[in-house]
Amino acid sequence: MATTTATTLRLATAGSVDDGKSTLIGRLLYDAKSVLADQLEQVAEASKRRNGDGEIDLSLLTDGLRAEREQGITIDVAYRYFATARRRFILADCPGHVQYTRNMLTGASTADLAIVLVDARNGVVEQTRRHAFIASLLGIRHIVLAVNKMDLVDFSEDRFDEISRDFCEFARGLTGVRDVAYIPIDAKHGDNVVHGSERMPWYGGVTMLEHLETVEVAGDHDDGRLRFPVQWVIRDPESGEREYAGQVAGGTVRAGDEVVVLPAGVRTTIADVRTLDGSLDAAEAPRSVTVTLADDVDVARGDMLCGAADAPEPVREIEADVCWMADAPLRPRGRYALKLGTQSVRVIADELIDVLDVHTLDRGAAPAELAANDIGRVRLRVSRPVVADAYEANRATGAFILIDETTNDTVAAGMVSRA
Amino acid sequence: MSRTLTHLDALESEAIHIMREVAAELEKPVLLFSGGKDSIVLLRLAEKAFRPGRFPFPLMHVDTGHNFPEVIEYRDRRVAELGERLIVASVQESIDAGRVTEETGVGASRNRLQTTTLLDAIEEHGFDAAFGGARRDEERARAKERIFSFRDDFGGWDPRAQRPEPWNLYNGRVRRGESVRVFPLSNWTELDVWSYIEREGLELPNIYFAHEREVFARDGMLYATADFIERRPEEEPFVETVRYRTVGDMSCTGAVRSDAATLPEVVAEIAATRVTERGETRADDRVSEAAMEDRKVAGYF
């Protein structure tokens, strides 16, 4: 069946308050015919109650919480699902406000592509740069700069070019971003979202949806080296055989592969790769499988099987960019639990190296602390050796969270810069 | 490097990863199994995650006493086939014990009452994680919910203070009395669920397929007749060929007119539908604009 084999694109949207993000998504869903009759009826009724006019407010499709509808803002990420004949889409609609950066990060962390929205009247503003920077920090390789509300600047090509140039200059400094698409749109009336625009005949590019359908994202998440974090050990009650269960985090695992069990450093060979449906020749990321090993070695949750030829060195210290998400600040000597893949260890923040100035995106001098929504580089000492890759090499084995063990809150999202 | 996983393979792998994380990190999980299609998919995923071992958790059904008999029969048969343990938490017992008061009259339902029964059972057994089959495409409050959804000591959801959940790094740490609801099917759509059921050849309760049934019309929906459902005088029962798109309580789950009698026919019908499953068949969501959000804050699935 064609619909089950189409590839999936995960995308995130971010923008400032009032630049029409929810309207854009509503338009995308509506014009892609992914809004069902009863949802539309609900939105039409709510639009009438709120705005009094006959126009359907498409932004009400995505703002799902009572408080969001009341205040007309997005507080937390909402997920939407739609499909065209070419592709399936998982869309994370993220809040743009700096106060909800942690929620934006939740939504954008799994995305292949980010749509950054600007209001054509305002052009590239601080939030635009911050959102694009966070997207690049998260390893998102593809950005769409959607210049919205073109109707309010008389569909001016000059204005669009000016904004595109501004952003292009800034984006040159974003490492890791492979391509930026610039699209002039009017989300409220649908121009260049799903359908082209008669009012902007000067625009020769594709519509937003066409771009989303065709952008190539394969290979964005890992550099191909085998990484298999062990999640769970299954013991066959009859044969007593042990199967190691996990999700392939990088590369491909095959029977016969020589692997090293980290952090112990023991070498062995993959005997079999299995699912409930039987043995596989190979399994690539991000497939969940079990493997058996040729030798009787000690393997448990938290261990990682890596290709013998390109295994990382276990480390006692990592440098990472963290986005701080708790109200209580991060200070030097702070102690936390770290979860990286299936590894859980304790860490001490030995050093705060720098903090990002969200206005200039310069990395400032060593700060005394990181406050909520700050992004900075830190050096963490771990209680026992961990196995990690740089985030740019592998998003699964280079990402971690920090947990405050007194409150159990998730207080930081981290990306390893050097392991 | 190519990614050859199909869309369903990717969803399956994500769900298996979630279930194994719960097994590894929580002390005492439970899987909520209603006999509905989503929880039937959850059971299949549990097999994929943990066989040839046993499930590292029991199954639990919150039985309102107003379930479709066909579904209860299916539930018991499926549990026996799997050889796993089923706990039945009974709303009738909550009523008998005076924990909740039965609604009466036309439109009475035990839907709200089951929240108390669920929370009591979670406390009684000391469960710190409960798998549910909810999906984000079902409803807009659910579209906002995390995969690991933290619940306080009262079972409540605080939509404005959800734990950040970047990547697939789930934080399942809870204190005594707190718990997480875990939704491995968060990123599945209704069509994905049906396509997966078809691909895996899963058996379903027969009420999901077109059959003749005595029904009556109310608020534009068709409800099954039953002893415990009070009808208004004008709500004359009649026989219609219907199937169910969702399976909840008989008192709040509507049937749809359909001739789809096989899985491929149902999948084709779902692919072409213009109405959401909850909008078409669930009276419990029609109460207000924020009906689901309010129920979740109170501890509902």
TrEMBL record, chain A:
InterPro entries: CysN_GTP-bd (IPR041757), CysN_II (IPR044138), CysN_NoDQ_III (IPR044139), G_TR_CS (IPR031157), GTP-eEF1A_C (IPR054696), P-loop_NTPase (IPR027417), SO4_adenylTrfase_lsu (IPR011779), T_Tr_GTP-bd_dom (IPR000795)
Enzyme Commission (EC) number: 2.7.7.4
Domain Tr-type G as annotated: residue spans: 6-220
Top-level lineage group: Bacteria
Keywords, comma-separated and alphabetical: ATP-binding, GTP-binding, Nucleotide-binding, Nucleotidyltransferase, Transferase
Family matches, as SUPFAM superfamilies: EF-Tu/eEF-1alpha/eIF2-gamma C-terminal domain (SSF50465), P-loop containing nucleoside triphosphate hydrolases (SSF52540), Translation proteins (SSF50447)
Short name of any one Pfam family annotated for the protein: GTP-eEF1A_C
Stated name of the protein: sulfate adenylyltransferase
Biological source species: Svornostia abyssi
From TrEMBL, chain B:
Entry keyword annotation includes Transferase: yes
Swiss-Prot/TrEMBL keywords: ATP-binding, Nucleotide-binding, Nucleotidyltransferase, Transferase
First-tier enzyme category under EC: transferase
EC number per UniProt: 2.7.7.4
Pfam family, one: PAPS_reduct
Single annotated GO MF: sulfate adenylyltransferase (ATP) activity
Residue ranges annotated for the Phosphoadenosine phosphosulphate reductase domain, each copy included: 29-254
Domain of life: Bacteria
Family stated for the protein in its record: Belongs to the PAPS reductase family. CysD subfamily.
NCBIfam families attached to this UniProt entry: CysD, PRK05253.1, PRK12563.1
Identification of the protein by name: Sulfate adenylyltransferase subunit 2
Organism: Svornostia abyssi
Chain's gene name: cysD
